[in-house]
Design brief:
This protein has 556 residues and is of the alpha+beta class. The protein has 20 helices and 17 strands. Helix 4 packs antiparallel against helix 5 and helix 17 packs parallel to helix 18. InterPro entries: ClpP/crotonase-like_dom_sf, TPR-like_helical_dom_sf.
């Protein structure tokens, strides 16, 4: 059997979890090719699962020496994330009963950025009584942590929050891929929040945590206190979107149907611009194109708007609005409990269906294609007007019953079937997903160098969608249309949340630095070659300026 055949057979045994066969086959592979770290890593996994912990340790050490990267998309995914390979070495030492070696490897893994260090409590049972464990992995989280505010002892409440802030600072320091961010200004801000804890209520402390995260330059960073403080998640039963020419109500509960399409001028007497300015220090971001999106979402949460001083009460607001064709009026809108926590910090002209009540009301216009099915991760159609294939790509993820790879094939088959003049890939409402699934699209575009390809982008284009756009920009002839993206060609981003032990508040801080652009590409976003911003007037008229611009170009 040739080398590639040997690897395929070994990988098949791994996928089938036939560990004895996998261990033997990977042993044969590394005898022939001892220089590829991923093969040693697979051997370590198979040996560990068969109980050969000493052999697994040797294999994992060799893998760590060489470095690993999966060839293709292997399952189970190898330990490629920060600290994971070193953690496997710690597990080997633990299984062999070597407490000190296990502890030392665990410390190294955590220093390398291991996600979820607390899992060591279960995986490394021999360290369960080690008094150093809490200092390394953090204090064990109670099954149901009490809110600090519920303590009868104010000193205890203060200490609980301060312990959470210490834990937060430690997690930030070991996770962020750009440690220079933690400069004197950050340390001063963190020290200031710690100092102010006795004088702040719980909402004020959470607001302070948001302010700290804002300093990280990490658009994926967030705080979720909804589970512990459900009253803070109460939301206005109206949805907003910040267009270039104004903030509109884009969807409403039936009780407020008269507000659909209304322009919002003020909140409790404060102009919208002032409200957004007050909230701005809380908006985590990769660039300055996303705060308007975030403001439209945060505005639905009066508890937070009240906490920053631009709402009179935490349970609702008075909106000053101008309905279409009507006069300026004030409307009191109470906040309602929500069954499902809202996504922070994104907003679109048409919200996710699960975010809206049954019978929700939208402005009366013919829905353009780009707003027709935004909750669908991907779909396409042939449009005879312009002789083009329109592919709306809203999420870089597979569906339960379909895959992106299969959809890409169908899209380009439709281009061939109709002899389409152009392909439009609409990614303006794509907030991300799995970056690995976007690369195949780039390959398809590269195989069609004579096909005009237009990619519609906007400030909602983020995360894995940003990486896909950057790859299309770097490698293909695609023409970008619309507005600048919500992230940069190189950015910090990942969803790896953790829990503050005392309060139970969830926090996300990214641990990966995506460098999809060239090393000298310092753009803050991928900008369109054809600028076509969506205005409130366009929205209310059911127009799509980006598609209009594409058709205008094709008509030349």
């Amino acid at each position: 059997m040739d080398q590639l055949g040997m690897v395929a057979a070994a990988e098949e045994s791994t996928r089938a979890r036939d560990w004895a066969a996998a261990a033997e086959r990977w042993r044969e592979v590394v005898e022939v090719n001892p220089v590829n770290g991923i093969f040693w890593c697979r051997l370590g996994l198979a040996r560990f699962e068969t109980g050969d912990h000493s052999g697994a340790l040797d294999a994992y050490r060799k893998a760590a020496e060489l470095g690993i990267w999966p060839i293709g998309y292997w399952a189970p995914l190898p330990p490629i994330f920060p600290g994971e390979l070193t953690y496997e070495i710690a597990r080997c030492h633990g299984a062999l009963g070597d407490r000190e070696a296990a502890f030392e490897a665990l410390v190294r893994a955590i220093g390398e950025g291991l996600r979820e260090p607390g899992k060591a409590r279960a995986d490394l049972a021999l360290l369960s009584d080690d008094p150093r464990l809490d200092d390394v992995v953090g204090p064990a989280r109670p099954a149901e942590p009490a809110k600090p505010a519920e303590s009868d002892d104010s000193a205890s409440r203060v200490e609980k929050w301060r312990s959470d802030l210490r834990f937060l600072r430690a997690e930030i320091a070991r996770r962020i891929p750009r440690p220079e961010i933690l400069d004197d200004d950050f340390r001063a801000a963190a020290d200031g929040l710690d100092h102010d804890v006795p004088d702040l209520d719980d909402a004020g402390i959470v607001i302070g945590i948001w302010r700290l995260l804002r300093r990280l330059g990490d658009g994926h960073a967030w705080v979720d206190a909804d589970e512990r403080y459900p009253e803070w998640s109460r939301s206005l039963p109206v949805w907003f979107y910040a267009f270039h020419d104004g903030l509109l109500v884009t969807e409403t509960d039936p009780r407020f149907r008269h507000l659909a399409g209304a322009e919002v001028l003020a909140v409790d007497g404060h102009p919208v611009a002032k409200v957004f300015d007050a909230l701005d220090p809380l908006f985590t971001r990769d660039n300055e194109y996303t705060p308007a999106l975030q403001g439209a979402m945060w505005l639905r949460r009066p508890a937070y708007v009240h906490a920053v001083g631009v709402a009179d009460r935490p349970d609702g607001v008075t909106l000053t609005v101008r309905p279409p064709g009507g006069s300026v009026t004030d409307v009191r809108v109470p906040a309602d409990p929500v069954d499902e926590a809202l996504t922070w910090p994104n907003s679109r002209p048409r919200p996710w269906p699960w975010n809206c009540p049954p019978g929700s009301v939208r402005p009366p216009f013919e829905t353009p294609a780009h707003l027709r099915d935004v909750d669908n991760p991907f779909w396409f159609e042939y449009q005879a007007a312009g002789n083009l294939v329109y592919f709306q790509f809203n999420g870089v993820r597979d569906k339960d019953d379909d895959t992106l790879a299969a959809c890409y094939e169908r899209v380009f088959a439709a281009v061939a079937e109709h002899d389409a003049r152009a392909l439009v890939i609409d990614m303006r409402w794509n907030g991300g997903g799995n970056t690995f699934l976007g690369q195949t699209l780039v390959h398809h575009v590269l195989r069609h160098p004579d096909l005009p390809v237009f990619v519609i982008i906007g400030n909602y284009t983020f995360s894995a969608a940003q990486n896909t756009v950057t790859l299309l920009d770097r490698h293909t002839h695609a023409v970008f249309v619309g507005e600048p993206t919500g992230s940069a060609p190189s950015f910090v981003g990942e969803s790896v949340p953790f829990t503050l032990p005392a309060s139970g508040v969830r926090v996300n801080v990214s641990d990966l630095y995506w460098q999809t652009g060239w090393p000298f590409d310092h753009r803050v976003a991928v900008a369109p070659r054809i600028y076509a911003p969506l205005t409130a007037a366009d929205y209310l008229a059911g127009r799509d300026p980006a598609m209009d611009a594409v058709r205008e170009h094709l008509a030349l």
